[in-house]
């Protein structure tokens, strides 16, 4: 359920927000959740801290209290060992508060980084299933309708005869994961993504040998463009498990690491639109490649 849907009910709702964090804490200042008598949206970090905040919020709902504060040490006395201390504000939401929170959510969704998956084969579909739960805008792209139709992930699917155009039209700091059924197409798309020079992540499925072959191709096609920004193999770990879901899990971790680093870089922070917030009042490693015949 989206926050807007949660807030659209007639039930009274308390907005719970971490306003100050000192030392170690499960979440940073600004983390928030919304509590009704029988529902919850968001999290301030879980554990005993969150249980205490939920209890306080529901007590406010029962008594009609409009605002309250909490100051909680995250120590053994509450069953947590973070060692920090957090300040929390709790505010009963007005209609205007709800509208502002819904707008803030829409702003946040619009600013989420884009992840483009080229190839809706086994690994591509597994990636989409993971990314549907993460704060990204994921697009699964293929020229084969029958493969796209097999995806059950709640992400955008795009039937594209010119996937290189999707790369050219993508916003800056996007992630591009290339794993089509055709090596020539893989090389074309990967070159296109590298030539942008502003991608947060460019990944090509394959082996160390495939990387060498691609590097030769790219040098012959793109004067001045380098492959230092390329990740190939993707999801590289010590694991030798080549099942699509396992590869996808490692790749998702790799991509999210790059995206979160890009989001906190000084350049990216300068380019971001301020968000609304409610205040009180070398060995060869071979990977799975798509060879399914259709």
Automatic annotation (TrEMBL):
Biased composition, class Polar residues, residue ranges: 262-276
InterPro entries (UniProt xref): MoCofactor_Util/Proc (IPR052698), Xanthine_DH_XdhC (IPR014308), XdhC_CoxI (IPR003777), XdhC_Rossmann_dom (IPR027051)
Pfam families from the UniProt entry: XdhC_C (PF13478), XdhC_CoxI (PF02625)
Region (Disordered): 261-294
Superkingdom, natural source: Bacteria
Gene3D superfamilies: NAD(P)-binding Rossmann-like Domain
Domain XdhC- CoxI intervals: 13-64
PANTHER family hit by this protein: ALDEHYDE OXIDOREDUCTASE MOLYBDENUM COFACTOR ASSEMBLY PROTEIN (PTHR30388), XANTHINE DEHYDROGENASE SUBUNIT A-RELATED (PTHR30388:SF6)
NCBIfam families membership: xanthine_xdhC
Full protein name: Xanthine dehydrogenase accessory factor
Source organism: Litoreibacter halocynthiae
């Amino acid at each position: 359920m989206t926050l807007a849907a949660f807030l659209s009910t007639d039930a009274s709702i308390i907005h719970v927000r971490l306003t100050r964090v000192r030392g170690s804490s499960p979440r940073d200042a600004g983390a928030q959740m919304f509590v009704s008598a029988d529902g919850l949206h968001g999290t301030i970090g879980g554990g005993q801290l969150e249980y205490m905040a939920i209890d306080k919020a529901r007590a406010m709902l029962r008594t009609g209290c409009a605002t309250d504060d909490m100051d909680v040490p995250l120590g053994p006395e509450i069953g947590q060992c973070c060692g920090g201390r957090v300040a929390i504000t709790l505010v009963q939401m007005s209609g205007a508060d709800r509208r502002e929170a819904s707008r803030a959510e829409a702003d946040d969704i619009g600013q989420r980084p884009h992840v483009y998956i080229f190839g809706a084969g086994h690994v591509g579909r597994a990636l989409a299933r993971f990314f549907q739960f993460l704060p990204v805008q994921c697009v699964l792209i293929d020229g084969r309708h029958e493969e796209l139709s097999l995806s059950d992930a709640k992400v955008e699917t795009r039937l594209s005869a010119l996937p290189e155009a999707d790369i050219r039209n993508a916003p800056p700091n996007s992630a591009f994961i290339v794993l089509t059924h055709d090596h020539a197409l893989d090389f074309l798309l990967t070159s296109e993504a590298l030539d942008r020079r502003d991608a947060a992540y460019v990944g090509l499925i394959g082996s160390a040998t495939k990387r060498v072959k691609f590097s030769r191709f790219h040098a012959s096609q793109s004067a001045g463009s380098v492959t230092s920004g390329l990740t190939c193999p993707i999801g590289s770990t010590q694991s030798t498990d080549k099942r699509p879901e396992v590869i996808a899990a490692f790749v998702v971790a790799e991509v999210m690491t790059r995206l979160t680093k890009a989001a906190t870089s000084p350049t990216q922070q300068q380019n971001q639109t301020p968000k609304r917030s409610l205040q009180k009042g070398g060995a060869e490693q071979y990977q799975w490649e798509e060879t399914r015949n259709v």
